[in-house]
Specification:
A hairpin with a 7-residue loop joins strand 1 (about 75-80) and strand 2 (about 85-90). The chain is globular and about 50 Å long. The strands form two sheets. Strands 5-4-3-6-7 form a five-stranded mixed sheet, covered by helices on one side. A two-stranded antiparallel ribbon has the order 1-2. The protein has helices at about 10, 20-25, 30-40, 45-50, 60-70, 90-95, 100-110, 120-130, 135-140, 180-190, 205-215; strands spanning about 75-80, 85-90, 145-150, 150-160, 160-165, 175-180, 200-205. It is α+β, with helices and mostly antiparallel strands.
């Protein structure tokens, strides 16, 4: 009898007509969904992806990118000069998975076992803003904030009860926040006073960031009975 490798494409599939099951066929392998997460705000180089996906090996990352590319969720291209480097980016269809991260993130934030001290990427932070933003708390607030998060540059704009976030250099911002993603998360979600966050710097109107912090709250933890 011929044995089939459990790592084969056929062996990994659920063979189930449910759309959710097929979704897991597409992004259910370990790291695949997190690769998609890191591509939600624009193209990334292989090295960038490996840096922000703590613990993934080069070999596994290559396999996941190849699988996502074969499924039509990701494609690679070469940036125009002077960069002239190869990047990976989500396809139009691939980008449609963003609401999944928002629903999953809000649901998982209720877990008593969630550990906010674990590593956090810049993209994760931006997606968390989109997930946890409360339009009612923002009211008619209008502001643009730049975030310098290590090698990553992000911009967040709040206007008309909506929050948008994208990768890019900050221009015409009210304030620029320089820090690591965990420090920003500590201010926004932990409500740690800014004066206590050594390593977080503000350039511009500090009051804007202090108001921005008030637009977010975490959902209550779920009651888990044993």
């Amino acid at each position: 009898m011929k044995l089939e490798k459990v790592t084969s494409e056929k062996g990994r599939r659920y063979h189930d007509a449910c759309g959710a099951a097929h979704g897991l066929d597409l992004v259910g392998d370990r790291w695949a969904l997190l690769v998609m997460r890191e591509l939600m705000l624009g193209p990334r180089r292989f090295g960038d992806l490996r840096r922000d996906l703590c613990g993934v090996s080069a070999n596994v990352l290559t396999q996941r990118l190849e699988g996502l590319e074969a499924s039509g969720l990701v494609h690679k291209r070469k940036l125009a000069p002077p960069a002239s480097v190869q990047v990976y980016e989500a396809t139009e269809w691939g980008l449609e998975i963003e609401p999944v991260f928002m629903v999953l993130g809000r649901w998982a934030a209720r877990s008593p076992g969630h550990d906010p001290t674990l590593p956090l990427s810049a993209v994760s932070l931006m997606l968390s803003f989109k997930t946890m933003f409360d339009p009612g708390l923002a009211g008619g607030g209008r502001m643009t904030l730049g975030f310098a998060l290590g090698e990553d540059r992000m911009v967040v704009r709040v206007a008309d009860g909506r929050l948008e976030a994208w990768r890019g250099e900050a221009e015409d911002t009210d304030v620029v926040v320089t820090a690591t993603p965990p420090l920003v998360a500590a201010a926004v979600y932990g409500k740690v006073p800014l004066r206590a966050l050594v390593g977080l710097a503000l350039e511009g109107d500090a009051a804007v960031f202090e108001r921005f912090v008030g637009f977010f709250h975490l959902p209550p933890k779920a009651e888990v009975t044993s």
